[in-house]
Every structure is written in C-alpha cells, then in structure tokens.
Write a structure and sequence with these properties.
Elements (H helix, E strand, L loop, with lengths): L1 H11 L2 H11 L5 H18 L1 H18 L5 H10 L11 H6 L7 H4 L11 H24 L8 H16 L5 H6 L2 H10 L1
Helix pairs in contact: 1-4, 2-4, 3-4, 3-5, 3-8, 4-5, 5-8
C-alpha cells in the first residue's frame, strides 16, 4: 500500500503530468468550472490508481486556483478529495485485486475471483459512472451554497514559485530540498517500482 502511494506521488509530480495539469487548468475560467474540473480530474485519476488520484487532486487544485483565484479554496480542495470516492471501483481496488490472485489468504473459502466478476461487473461500472457524473454536480451546487469564500493568499503561491525557481537554479536549496526535487532520484525510485 505504501508503494502505491509513493509511486502515485512520483507519477503525479513528474514533469509530464505537471505540464498536462497546467494545460488542463486552462479549461477553468469561473469558480464553478474550477470545482467541476478538479472533481472530474481527481475522480478519473483515482480510477487509475488511488495513490495517483490522491496526489493529482491536490496538485491540480493548486494549478486551477492559480488560474481562478476567486474560487473558494476550501471547496476546491474538498472537490479534489471527493474524487477519492471512486477508487475502490477502479484499477487499484485492494480487495478485488487480492481475491483475484491465485494464492490469497481466503482462497480456501472463496476461491480465486477474477476482476471480471468484481470490478468489471455492470453494477460496479454503474456505481462508478454514477459517481463520476454526480460528484461534479454536487460539488458545483455546494459552491452555490457557500456564503463566505475562503480565498487563497497569493503569497503562498509566490512561495511555491520561489521554490520551483530555486530548484531550477539548485543553488538556494537545502540538501533535503535537493533530494525532494531531484529528477534523477525520482527516476530511480520510479524505475525500481
């Protein structure tokens, strides 16, 4: 499980995914569009891998709030994590994947249950599709009910840009920050995974 989260983070913070997230963020022009877009991207990412989706939601919310600074930041983060509701119907669902293996701990009781009888059944697909269709709508209407917006302080965004700039120059970083931002270390850990 820890490996799923770590590899999900490595993939989500890669330069390819970061560029994709920045391009997707352009689609949001209003707070409503921002919340809907973050919900959809997070939900789809959670279907692929729950560790990936967990990180993508938060990272994408950051890109979107830069584009739409008038969005309620609390709701945007809630939208990012609401996509997590679909992970267990997706490709990294732990129980369906466990019981699909030949030698799982309940093989004597259940036998081996293929994913065609769990994840790919019509009832599971119905639930997943319904959640992906309704979560953005629910989050959108939640935005409408917010009376007092909580906006992100632009100095937080500037601090992140300074860290990114320092990472590019590599002179102003502490050793821990160098390790955290090292593409070589990320490639080694990602390749080992």
């Amino acid at each position: 499980m820890a490996l799923i989260v770590v590899t999900g983070y490595i993939l989500a913070s890669s330069s390819v995914i970061t560029k994709l997230l920045k391009r997707l963020a352009i689609l949001a022009n209003t707070p409503g569009q921002a919340v809907v877009l973050v919900t959809l991207v997070a939900s789809i990412a959670c279907l692929i891998n729950y560790g990936f989706g967990l990180v993508i939601g938060a990272l994408f919310a950051k890109h979107v709030v830069i584009r739409v600074p008038t969005v309620d930041y609390r709701l945007l983060i809630a939208a990012a994590y609401s996509g997590f509701l679909v992970w267990h119907g997706g490709l990294s669902a732990s129980i369906p994947l466990t019981i699909a293996t030949e030698d799982h701990f309940l093989v004597d009781t259940l036998g081996s249950v293929p994913v065609t009888q769990t994840l790919l059944t019509p009832y599971n697909l119905f639930i997943v599709i319904t959640l992906i269709a309704t979560l953005p709508v629910i989050n959108y209407f939640s935005l409408k009910s917010v009376k007092d917006k909580t906006l992100i302080d632009p100095t937080f965004l500037e601090a992140d840009k300074k860290i990114e700039h320092a990472a590019a120059s590599d002179n102003l970083l502490t050793p821990a920050e160098r390790l955290e931002n090292s593409q070589i270390l990320s490639w080694i850990i990602g390749g080992a995974g």
